[in-house]
Model the fold of this input.
Amino acid sequence: MFTITDKAADKAKAILTNEGKDNWGIKIFSAGQGCCGPSYGLDLQEVQLPTDEVIEKNGVKVYIDKQMSENLSEMKLDYYIDEEREGFVLSGSAPSCSSGCSSCG
Done:
């Protein structure tokens, strides 16, 4: 099951409040496909679309397209802060890079 950490939910809520979009949510979308599997992105979304599943945590809605939900089922949305950077991170089960193209590590 896709999970959202408290830290990610709280940061998302703060961002939505700062943008004046308290009733909006976070959309996780497919940002393309490479040799190492799919890439994902985050955006702000006002309403749930008919094709979305919604997961709610600490008053924040996260929208995921139903077709993607199986791919994200073992993943987690978190928020990290360290000395050099901060931001949302999707982590968990991801396909390994096995095509040999060397473009993704």
Remarks:
- The longest strand covers residues 25-34.
- The CA atoms of residues 26 and 62 lie 5 Å apart.
